[in-house]
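Subject: Interface between my chains keeps coming out wrong

I've been trying for a while to get a sensible model of this assembly. When I model each chain on its own everything looks fine, but I need the whole thing in one frame so I can look at the contacts. Pasting all components below, labels as-is. Any help appreciated, I'm running out of ideas.
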Amino acid sequence: MDEINNLMQGFSVAMTLPNVAYMLVGITLGILIGVLPGLGGANGIAILLPLTFSMNPTSAIIMLSCIYWGALFGGAITSILFNIPGEPWSVATTFDGYPMAQQGRAAQALTAAFTSSFVGALIAVALITFLAPLLAKFALRFGPAEYFAVQLLTFCSFVGMSKEPPAKVIASMMLGFALAAVGMDTVTGQLRMTFGFPELLKGFDFLIAVIGLFGIGEILLTMEEGLAFKGKSAKLNLRVVLQTWKQLPQYWMTFLRSTAVGCWMGITPGGATPASFMSYGIARRMSKEPDSFGKGQIEGVLAPETAAHAAGTSALLPMLTLGIPGSPTAAVLLGGLMIWGLQPGPMLFVEHKDFVWGLIASMYLGNLVGLLVVLTTVPFWAAFLRIPFSVIAPVIVVICAIGAYTVHSSMFDVVMMLVFGVVGYLFKKLKYPMAPLVLALVLGDMAEASFRQSMLLSQGSLAIFWSNPLVGSIAGLAILMLVWPLLSSFKSSSRKRAG
Amino acid sequence: MSNQPNPQDSSEKPPLKERGPELVVAALLMVVAGLVIKDSVRVGIDWADDGPRAGYFPFYIGLLLLASSGTIFVSTLLKWRAKAAVFAEQEQLATVFAMLLPMTVYVVAMVWLGIYLPSALLIGYFMRRYGKFGWLPTTSVSIAVPLAFFIVFERWFLVPLPKGPIETWLGF
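Reply #2:
Try treating it as a single job with all components included. I did that and got this:
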């Protein structure tokens, strides 16, 4: 098996002393980011990205992806102990995690959450290990038309799978594309939509957008909710951990189901948040005692945590193989790849084997290290939340400002961060989804380039998108995803009429 | 997410309805769409000898943005009476602005004063105003945090942050 050999080589890259140190730093920073409100996986990595510009890319991505794993673990701590989801994907964890903590079973809930995160991630990494090389080999045959069709599929599935009204998903996405088009046109060199402002020449950087939308926007929301941290304390000791572990194997079906949901939602751009809700819903529906959910049922912690972690991990699969991120955080990592001078996509697997396999190996190690770190350091993180919000909020604003400034050493970016923060607050309140905006901003130039190349090949005929079975079926699937809300509303209304 | 403030607390003023901001945001998006379309037409939306012109792709983006935000705008107007969902209580809006205003002042001050002094002032302001801390913890935290950032960024990672007249005077 080629993959096993490659993976072993990857381990030899990831296991070097500096890389393990970066892993530990990443996990620790990640948990901190996950615990603090206003800092999350996407904007946390965006803020720290400038610090890695001079690092070697493999070490940099190991550290940044470990921040992501750490943030996924950290979100569970605040959900269970404080009933405050540190991350959107851990909202579903509060439903049963906090009741468990109230009943004095916090340690059990935390162990269950961390372990299920680990299991979800592990299965997803295994999936990446064996699926990614195949997908990359397949994608090597892609031309511009196929690439555009895949990008179309990504964006159409947002419309088809979001809970938000389709008009808002499309509006948010198109705003992203429009912002991406600002600045110099990569093909003709013409200036677009700069309206004479020199600051707009280089366009809008998505890192600034991510820091503003998710960081500043989140702080404003948290202010509005008037946060008071009233938490349960927790001590994890080995006995409780082992006891909980003994219980867990009986829930193997929940694990499998949640991982499947998570991987599916991660590869298609559903993301970790809907995956956790969906998985919680399914677990409750399939349970023999659905009424016990919401009152401290351990399955209610297992299901969303497994799915969120599986989704977060598998979001890296399309990012690595096709250059199309499955989540905002994966989009930020993709941005990092480009900054370090690596072109994401199938050629990565041919030209930068060490990088790819080092990253995949570090996912196995990083999650294991993450599990050990969180299990041993919970009380320490819980103490962070006892710092009053009046101290944390301005410090996070300062961190966001530093992050925005360091991307291009530009004050204009800091101002834009504030603007994006207000946009983020309004969008969140009015239920515009933010992930399509970020992804469109990242992929805008690429999508435009592949669309224009396809048009050049076909002399302006859209027929190129069904000129062969491969591109035709991807484009067809994309259209199906686009009209999915129409179909399902039609179905439910006809069912209502029948009933 | 949790800890929704009790709505009875702010019974004097009616809460802000969702439909107003909804309409404003949709209208702003329509303006953006208009700008995108106008500028795309300016740079050319048709074909040149060497392929599609620069405005070719953004033009359709603008159209789609106009269509989607127009849909939201019109449907908000059509369901104006039915749409009575609450955007935020007056009191909540007040806290949001209490955060947003100092943040704006902070960013503007950064342009002239660099990052360190405004950061210290921002942290100090929040701790005094909302945390009701004494002067000693306030001053020590608001000096320690920017100092820590200075050490991590400028000394450790060698990433320069914006500096103002005071830093220049101190010799950095």
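Reply #3:
Confirming on my end. Residues 1-11 of chain B have pLDDT under 50 and may be disordered.
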